[in-house]
Amino acid sequence: MSARTRLRVALAALASAALAACPWAAAHADQTATTHLTGTLADGATWIADVPDRWNGTLLLFSPLPAPYASSCSPRAMRWPGRRTGNNSWNRGVDYARLLAGSAHARQVRALYRTAGLDLRADLASLTRGATIAADPAAVRTARRTSSAGQGLAVPLLDVHTIADNLVPVEQERQFGDRVRRAGDGAMLRQAYVERQGHCTFTTAETVAALHALEHRVTTGRWDDAATPAALQRSATALGLDGAACVPYRPARLTVGRDRPEHPARH
C-alpha cells in the first residue's frame, strides 16, 4: 500500500448535536389521548409524543443528525429521507489552495504532508481541477428556506459539540453563533464543547448534564451559570457514570463560509 493510499487528510466535515426546549403549541399538536400526542409540522413531517397526564406543554429534545446523513456525505449523495428537490451542494469554482490557506488547520495539514513525503500542491491543484459539481438552484432555495439555521431562535437552545468532529467541523458553531447574535437572540443560545474526537461521541454523563442545564433554563427562565463549561463538567462528574470532558473552547472561523462562491447553476 502506497503512502498516498495510507494518508488522506480531512480538513472538514459536518454535524452537531443540539439540545432545545420546544413549546407544544408551536408544533400544532392534535391530542388524540390523554398521554399520546401527534402533530404535523409546517413541512409535512409528523411527530408522536407520549407525555405525562399533567404535562405542562414543554418538550426537551436531543437531536443529532440522522444516520442517512452520516452514511452519505458526498455532494452527490445527500440521501435525506423524502428529499425530492435535487442536489443542494456544490464545489464548482472552489479554489482549494485558497481554502486551505485560510484554514486554522493549514499548519497541521502541511506538516502531515511533509511527514508523509507527499505533494500537497499537486493534490490541491487536482482537487481544484475536479471541482465541477453544480447545485440545483431550486434545491438550494429549498434548503435555505427550510434548513438554514441561525436566522433567529424562538426557544432556548443549548448546542453541544466535540472539538474534533470529523463529520461536522466545530467551526460550524462559530458561524451559527454569529448568525444568532446578529439576529438579536444571543441570550437564548448557549454553546458547550467536549474535548473528544468523533461526531456526537458524548458520554451519558455529558448528555444528562446538558439536559439538566436546559431544564434549569426552562424552569427558571434564566441560564445563570448552568451551561458554563465548569458547571457542566461538575454536573456530569457528579453523576458518577462514564466521565466527562467539558472544556472552555472557542472555534476558529469557518473557512468555507467565507470563501465559497455563490452556487453555480446546472446547465
Radius of gyration: 21 Å
Determine the fraction of residues in helical runs and give it as a percent range: 25-40%
Strand order of the largest sheet: 5-1-6-7-8
Instruction: Specify the structural class.
Output: alpha+beta
State the order of secondary-structure elements, H for helix, E for strand: HEEEEEHHHHHEHEHHEH
Descriptive keywords:
17% strand; 267 residues; globular; disordered N terminus; five-stranded mixed β-sheet; single chain; alpha+beta; 8 strands
How would you describe what is shown here?
It is built from ten helices and eight strands. It is an alpha+beta fold and 267 residues long. The strands form two sheets. It has a five-stranded mixed sheet, sandwiched between helices. Strands 2-3-4 form a three-stranded antiparallel sheet, with no helix packed on it. The longest helix has 17 residues, at 204-220. The relative contact order is 0.16.
Which helices and strands, and how do they pair?
Layout: H1 3-6, E1 17-23, E2 29-31, E3 36-40, E4 46-50, E5 58-63, H2 67-70, H3 96-101, H4 106-116, H5 120-129, H6 137-146, E6 157-164, H7 171-182, E7 189-197, H8 204-220, H9 229-238, E8 246-247, H10 255-259
Parallel strand pairs: 6-7
Antiparallel strand pairs: 1-5, 1-6, 2-3, 3-4, 7-8
Helix pairs in contact: 8-9
